[in-house]
């Protein structure tokens, strides 16, 4: 999978953990997770394999079409991780404020996003530590 394809899949979250494991009805191959589904299947012949749609509650979902190694076309549903609740809006506003703080400290917007996401995953950030920002992490 190339970098552009990988970037398309980033940020997608399985709509339900219950969709895996997934089985190809043609050959019986099993996919234990969304990650293995993407890694162990092939791109469809045209486009990214992504199609936007709405679920039963009129919420946006993305359908991902992939080809099993046997040639059968498979599909899974993914949804936007973004919370549309008031608390989700507050978290996004806080994230934006933190981005601005880091940009004032000399980071580009992309660098600031990367480092904040790293911290949100409990990982250390050597880049922020080099700026004198020391936060406790799980690493």
| Uncertain segments | 4-18
H and E order: HEEEHEEEEHHH
Q: Figure out the total of helices.
A: 5
Number of strands: 7
Determine the N-to-C terminus distance.
Answer: 29 Å
Structural class: alpha+beta
Shape: elongated
The Cα radius of gyration reads: 19 Å
Commentary on this structure:
It is a single chain. It contains five helices and seven strands; from the N terminus they run αβββαββββααα. The protein has two domains: 3-80, no CATH class; 86-130, no CATH class. The chain is elongated and about 55 Å long. The chain has helices at 3-9, 34-39, 86-104, 109-120, 126-130, and strands spanning 12-14, 22-23, 30-31, 42-43, 50-54, 60-67, 73-80. By secondary structure, it is an alpha+beta fold. α3 packs across α4. It is 35% helix and 22% strand. The strands form two sheets. Strands 1, 4, 5, 6 and 7 form a five-stranded antiparallel beta sheet that branches. A two-stranded antiparallel ribbon has the order 2-3.
In short:
With 139 residues, the chain is α+β, with helices and mostly antiparallel strands. The chain folds into 2 domains: 3-80, no CATH class; 86-130, no CATH class. It has helices spanning 3-9, 34-39, 86-104, 109-120, 126-130, and strands at 12-14, 22-23, 30-31, 42-43, 50-54, 60-67, 73-80.
Topology diagram in text:
Elements: H1 3-9, E1 12-14, E2 22-23, E3 30-31, H2 34-39, E4 42-43, E5 50-54, E6 60-67, E7 73-80, H3 86-104, H4 109-120, H5 126-130
């Amino acid at each position: 999978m190339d970098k552009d394809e990988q970037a398309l899949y980033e940020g997608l979250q399985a709509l339900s953990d219950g969709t895996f494991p997934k089985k190809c009805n043609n050959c019986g191959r099993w996919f234990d997770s969304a990650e293995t589904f993407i890694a162990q299947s092939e791109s469809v012949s045209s486009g990214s394999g992504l199609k936007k749609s709405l679920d039963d509650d009129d919420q946006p979902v993305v359908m991902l079409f992939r080809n099993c190694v046997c040639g059968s076309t498979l599909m899974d549903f993914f949804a936007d991780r973004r919370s549309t609740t008031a608390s989700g809006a507050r978290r996004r506003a806080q994230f934006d404020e933190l981005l601005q703080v880091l940009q004032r400290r000399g980071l580009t917007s992309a660098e600031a996003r990367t480092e904040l996401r790293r911290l949100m995953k409990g990982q250390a950030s050597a880049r922020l530590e080099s700026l004198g920002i020391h936060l406790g992490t799980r690493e």
